[in-house]
Amino acid sequence: MTNGIQAPRGTKDLFGPEFDRFEALERLASGVARTWGYAGIRTPVFEDTGLFVRSIGEATDIVEKEMFTVPPREDKGDDKSYTLRPENTAGVVRAYLEHNLHKTQGLARFFYIGPQFRRERPQAGRLRQFHQMGAEVLGLLREAKGDQPAAPYTAYADVILMAAEILSRAGLKGLKLRYNSVGCAKPGCRDGYREKLKAALSAGKEKLCGDCQRRIDRNVFRVLDCKKPNCREVSAAVLANVPQEFCAECRAQMDFVSPTVKELLPAGVEAAHDQFLVRGLDYYTGTVFEFTAEGLGSQDAVGGGGSYDGLIEEMGGPKLGATGFALGLERVLMSQEAAKAASPEAPAAGALVYVAAAVDSPEPYKLAVRLRQAGIRTDFDLSAPARGVGNHLKRASKLGARLAVIVGEDELKAGEATVKDMAGGEQRRIKAADALAEVKKTLG
Ligand code: AMP
Fold it and tell me: Can you tell me the distance from the alpha carbon of 355 to that of 368, in angstroms, rounded to the nearest whole number?
């Protein structure tokens, strides 16, 4: 019928009802991202090979074994090697720097949807061309600079909560979030932990599988990730004896993210700290996370991410942090089908509400998340712990917000918020607990 030519292994043709479900999921994901104030970006499907080698890391499975690479064509005057993107974060960071967004925009929030390519052994839930929806927050000032304070850890929680919102709205069952810290590149942080792990794992080396024995020197954290029972047993014993001793910054990040996320996760999503969790890409620092869901067999990760505070600088940019996630859309659909969930409606792109933190407290952020979870398009400044009201109102007006919900020192003490109509200028104080109902009523 096709002269023996078939779609390459690990790829899929998408048509009929499956196409419709896929499209509905894309709409849901971009609708939620916009509700959370993230803007779309599309980067090329292929990039210079060096981009992935530098960002994902030379000693990772992706770079060592799974890249679709096109060699240079000197005869055509093109001495570059190109690679089909195995993930989208590196491309987004490149674009952020190439277009000088760190200078013109400072903090940028992007979401993307598109195909990714990894030459893995195809199996259920593991394709060679698959699709990811992801989001990135780029440009977080990690240390105070002049009169600019360091960015709070809110962004690190924001991406986890947005991913959870998409997965939960998609109707997935048995959603579980696991999170961990992998430490950072500061002296004495990840490197100290790495050396202790290496020493402890080397002592039980003969029990580990061949791959893990090699990983001890090349990428010791991946040993923790191995699912083979023997390796798991050795790792468990090692983790019980080698406490994570990360730097104060990494600890503070986790101390903020963990309770904030747990408090705000959509109903039905379980969350747990899991010291076995590491990620397959080298650029992660600090908090990392993964979501799993029912109906997927052994490949049950529907998405994951974490912070990558060193990558912007590593790629030639300034010292600014970043964080993000990626969801595997085929796996989300598989799990959705197993849960017999109907394709959900995407949140409508309604009027914008701007939540202004005029006091350094997690409360205004929590309020913003609750509005978003109710489907209200809500912007929140992730770049600073707090700003003056005037500064916030300027931003709200520039963004075209209909309402501003302001929480300052006074409001916080009284358990209240100020709701301001951005067009007419009227404002009134309300109970913070009534903010959602008030906003809904006002927006009509
Ligand atoms: P990663 O970029 O490796 O963190 O992967 C993020 C998510 O993308 C995973 O949790 C999976 O849902 C999905 N994913 C990764 N690799 C594949 C693959 N080969 N086939 C299908 N989905 C994948």
Answer: 6
